Amino acid sequence: MSDLVATSNEVKQREARTSIRQLEKAISVNDDTTGFYYSKDGTIDLRTVASDLTEHHRRILHRPPKLYSKVIDALEAATDCFWAHVDPTHKTKALDQLHATLKDRFHCHRVRLVGLEKYVSISVERLNIQRSMVSFITAEIAQKDAKLNLKIAGDQRKIAHASKSDSQAMKALSLLGAAFLPGTFIASIFSMSFFDFQTQVHVSSKIWIYFAFMVPLTTAVLLGWLFWDHKRRRLQHLTRSSSNNSGSDTEKAIMFEISKRA
């Protein structure tokens, strides 16, 4: 019993306190943490830190001093009961000295266990503080990751919008095609009737039919193209505004959830 109370338990608690001190140095990112296995390439391995926090908490609470205090109380009660019921004729001087020695030993162990219990409670409090610090660091990292993801999403939207803006050259080509396509179409239909190159070069008197069809058709095609382009631009503007508002609302929602968890 003396070995368990005075030696083994104290050694175990002091070893745990040393490990807690290393954890505190690692979490606070002191300059002297480079030699610890928590540091990898200048960064702290939070997974290992969290695992060791749990392990040290378990070691500290394993066979707590209160358990030994109850055992000592039971032993002292048994000793007192024995001394109260022993035959007075058997209470020799040697037995009396043994009883007094046991009482003194019980008292000494009880006092040491009280101090050890305070020691354990302080260790538990220090572990709780470091666990709270790890939770804060994890929440801060998650918040930065969320902001980074939102920034990446915003950049991707900007790239998409820039790609749409780069299509202006293609729009110009399509406009030229829309301007010349009706005339080409009409000319291909009426060319053999309007132009006669068999005897001499001359233009048919009915060439006005070509312009009568070509001009209105070209105008209609261009107006239709302009109407479609205007409608497409308006739809893109509404979609862009909606996506910006959605991104802002999403960021606010994520920040609100992170603040609640923190």
UniProtKB/TrEMBL annotation:
Keywords: Membrane, Transmembrane, Transmembrane helix. The chain crosses the membrane at residues 173-195, 207-228. GO terms for cellular component: membrane. The keyword Transmembrane helix applies. It is found in: Membrane. InterPro entries: CorA_TM1_TM2 (IPR045863). This is Uncharacterized protein. It is a multi-pass membrane protein. It comes from Colletotrichum abscissum. Its main location: membrane. The keyword Membrane applies.
